[in-house]
Amino acid sequence: MCAEATVTDNARPPGLMRRLYDWTLSWAERPGGAWALFFLAVAESSVFPIPPDVLLIALAVGVPKRAFRFAAICAVGSVLGGMIGYAIGAGAWHAVQGWFIPHLFSQAAFEKVQTLYQGNAFLAILTAAFTPIPYKVFTIAAGVFNVSFWTLVSASIVGRSMRFVLVAGIIYVFGPSVKSWIEKYFDWCAWGFLILLVLGFILVKYLH
Predict the structure, then answer these.
(1) What angle do the packed helices 93-100 and 135-144 form, to 10 degrees?
(2) Cα 68 to Cα 132: distance, rounded to the nearest angstrom
(3) Which tens digits make up the pLDDT trace of 41-78?
(4) What is the C-alpha separation between 19 and 141, in angstroms, rounded?
(5) Confidence class of residue 104 from pLDDT cuts 50, 70 and 90?
(6) Strands (DSSP E) along 104-161, which ranges?
(7) pLDDT given at position 103
(8) What is the pLDDT of residues 120-173, one digit of tens each?
(9) Inter-axis angle of helices 67-91 and 149-184, to 10 degrees?
(10) Phi first, then psi: what are they for 203, rounded to 5°?
(11) How far apart are CA 41 and CA 63, in angstroms?
(12) Which of 54, 59, 124, 142 has the fewest Cβ atoms within 10 angstroms?
């Protein structure tokens, strides 16, 4: 079986996404892996387009017994990043608006978030924090539209913790089998993740 796998690997070199996955997974064995997860979570909540779930999954799969620790690190970093996003929206939006729109999100999505905030800001942020909806749009918009800072923080703590703990729980329970499944169907997982991100943007566009 090992020989057969080696022949297959030699016949078709891994693609960029697979190499990136393998590199990311290697952080699970490094002292800096948890810090990398923390800073990625901070950045994603305000300025970075790639969500931290990718590294969280890689780290948790590498060491399933530490899955919940990684989830906690990810949640703390993400909430802190949300606060930074709020500060950007509240204090510097006039200076950075041209960079965020249209490079990270559209004007239409931004206006949709404003409409949602006029309804139930806590629920809107909670939903964005838990689902593939682009969370950074909500953190920055919360500052721009003067949503209560503590509404953002409380909803983010609940939503982000639920999201990352759910991921960690699945890996903790099914650890080795999840790792084997991801490695076997990695390409499908990558495409599925991208589809979820696109659906998140579409959902923001059409929510009323």
Answers:
(1) 150
(2) 20
(3) 998 888 777 778 878 887 887 778 888 999 999 999 99
(4) 35
(5) low
(6) none
(7) 65
(8) 899 999 988 988 777 888 999 999 999 999 999 999 999 999 999 988 888 888
(9) 140
(10) -65, -40
(11) 19
(12) 54
pLDDT score, position 106 = 66
- What would the two tokens of residue 86 be? 């709020």
What are the structure tokens assigned to 70, written together?
């990684």
- What is the distance between the alpha carbons of residues 140 and 34, in angstroms, rounded to a whole number? 26
Output 189-198 pairs: Cβ under 8 A, ≥24 positions apart: 190/17, 190/21, 193/53, 193/54, 196/132, 197/51, 197/132, 197/134
Amino acid at 70: F
Determine if the peptide bond prior to 13 is cis (ω within 30°).
no
Which two tokens mark 36?
Answer: 């990398």
Residue 103 in contact with residue 136, Cβ under 8 Å?
no
Alpha-carbon torsion, ordered 1, 172, 192, 50, to 10 deg = -120
| Distance in angstroms between the alpha carbons of the first and the last residue of the chain | 54
Residue 207 CB neighbour total at 10 angstroms: 15
What is the pTM for the complete model shown?
A: 0.72
Closest by CA to 113, choosing from 144, 85, 138, 89, is: 138
Amino acid at 15: G
